[in-house]
């Protein structure tokens, strides 16, 4: 491919028209820019249980429609993941629980334990990805310009480190009163502009830390 190494640890594959992730990505790259390509799938684990060196991964503006992060046990120090501008309609963070039977699928232990920033803007999500609470270090979630319709009480459950949520330009009509109840560190911004909210949300906002938090609610339909 036409990928370029900038120094020893930065791999730049942007605008190289690649359709698969380079195999040497797992070896020494700390920062990898794979944006503006034709990548349709990204599989974290290569089956060899090798821990990658990646801290920053940019997969924006590709052709990814589905992504499963439950296999990403080999990315222990990944801090930022940029998935903007794909066609993602399914982002899986947790294992499904069977409807019948005594056994349950085990939850993912310490999924991406260092991940601080998850950006999934300009995709096709119609719900908040389930299992965000498994990302124990998550501080920033950007999900603007999707098709999310409502915020349920468990969407941000156990996201105790979250400081910044961007849900601008979705189709949100309903937010559960307890949706943000446990986000004690939410202190930077909550962006709900350009949605379809029809009534103000005092019962939700009262519990938030107004002294440090910026809340944006303009361009809704009330």
TrEMBL record:
Keywords per UniProt: Leucine-rich repeat, Repeat
Membrane-spanning ranges: none
Leader sequence segment: none
A Pfam family of this chain: LRR_1
GO cellular component: plasma membrane
Keyword Secreted: no
PROSITE patterns: LRR
Family annotation (SUPFAM superfamilies): L domain-like
PANTHER family: ANTIGEN BSP, PUTATIVE-RELATED, INSULIN LIKE GROWTH FACTOR BINDING PROTEIN ACID LABILE SUBUNIT
Name the record gives this protein: LRC66 protein
């Amino acid at each position: 491919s036409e990928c370029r190494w900038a120094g020893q640890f930065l791999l730049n594959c942007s605008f190289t028209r690649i359709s698969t992730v380079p195999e040497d990505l797992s070896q020494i790259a700390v920062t990898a820019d794979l944006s503006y390509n034709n990548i349709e799938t990204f599989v974290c684990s290569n089956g060899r249980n090798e821990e990658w060196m990646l801290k920053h991964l940019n997969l924006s503006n590709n052709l990814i429609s589905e992504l499963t992060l439950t296999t990403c046990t080999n990315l222990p120090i990944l801090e930022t993941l940029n998935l903007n501008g794909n066609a993602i309609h399914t982002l899986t963070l947790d294992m499904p629980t069977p409807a019948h039977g005594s056994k349950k699928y085990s939850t993912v232990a310490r999924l991406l334990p260092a991940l601080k920033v998850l950006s999934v803007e300009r995709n096709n999500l119609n719900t908040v990805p389930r299992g965000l609470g498994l990302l124990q270090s998550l501080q920033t979630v950007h999900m603007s310009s999707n098709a999310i319709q409502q915020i349920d009480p468990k969407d941000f459950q156990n996201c105790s480190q979250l400081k910044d949520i961007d849900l601008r330009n979705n189709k949100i009509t309903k937010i559960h009163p307890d949706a943000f109840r446990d986000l004690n560190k939410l202190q930077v911004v909550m962006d709900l502009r350009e949605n379809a909210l029809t009534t103000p949300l005092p019962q939700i906002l009262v519990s938030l830390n107004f002294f440090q938090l910026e809340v944006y609610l303009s361009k809704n339909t009330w």
